[in-house]
Amino acid sequence: MKAFIVYCHPSGDSLTRNLKDEFVKGIVDSGNEYVLSDLYEMDFKADMTEEEYLRDAYYRSTPEVAADVLAEQEKVNSSDAIVFIYPVFWTEAPAKLVGWFDRVWSYGFAYGNKTMKMLEKGVILCSAGNPADKLEKLGLLRSMKKVMFGDRLFNRVKQKEFVLFAGTSREKESRKGNWDDNLRKAYEKGKTLFLRSEEVFSLDDRYFTSVSNSDDGEVSDQTVFSYHQKGNVIWAEYSGGRIIKGFLLGTIDENNNLHFDYRHINTDGESKSGSCNSEPRPVNGKLRFYEKWKWADGREGSSVIEEL
């Protein structure tokens, strides 16, 4: 098995560089292969040209793709997994990695009539100066995951994992204290990258839309649900169609059934609420939830949502 590692850091004197080196050692020790793009070392051109912009803007599947972009796309399609290793800059990847996505995720490759293969795994190894609890409380970690999972890796990998190395600013004691543990963690992630294990069911950063609903329901195929999970607690934001903004909050049980309350504002300006029980079933390779819901006024109905 082969991993394509996209590494982006401007300094060789960094924890992130050491994390990358240990991750690579883990892959090699597991008997697998890797190919590396060190974006700063190779001086990858991050800025889109006008020609590249117009090609994508007008959805043209023309063959005029730059040689450096074709080389990166070939690395993707020759691999089984893709791994991004980078530091957080203002809640985002470094500009050079953002530019990599701008250019390499081109029309006809990563979207449209795609020639990009479906990869087995997509993994992010991300170092951040702030501690994890602060990133979670401010919603920044969720934002980082949403950009990487909900847009850049969306429908392009089968499994996704976000590995955070937090509290790594040079002025923090935790950087030095956790140095060896972080390197061991990176090594183990590389060594176990392709091990098959029973996947833990999680709704975190997964997106759904309605495929059917009772007449009294307000959710439609224009409504998108963005789910999150922590332990047995689940929550989601939803909007689209008749829903201006909605939220749900509840729990997931040992059989992965959902039990939650919901509230939203519709396009008539009405505030609507109710409760719902939802049962998961795989259908044609996608996860569906079969729901039985009840409005606060007692009306009942059923619906089905399917993962995007």
Which strands sit side by side, in order, in the main sheet? 6-7-8-9-10-11-12-13
- Strand % is 35-45%
Largest sheet: 8 strands, antiparallel, barrel
Looking at CATH, the homologous superfamily of the largest domain is Flavodoxin domain
Pattern of helices and strands:
EHEHHEHEHHEHHEEEEEEEE
CATH level 1 name of the largest domain: Alpha Beta
The pLDDT mean sits at 91
CATH architecture of the largest domain: 3-Layer(aba) Sandwich
Number of strands: 13
Distance between the termini: 27 Å
Rg calculated over all Cα atoms: 21 Å
Shape: globular
User: What percent of residues adopt helix (DSSP H or I)?
Assistant: 25-40%
Classification by helices and strands: alpha/beta
Stretches where pLDDT falls below 50 for ≥5 residues? none
Number of separate structural domains: 2
Discrete helix count: 8
CATH third-level topology of the largest domain: Rossmann fold
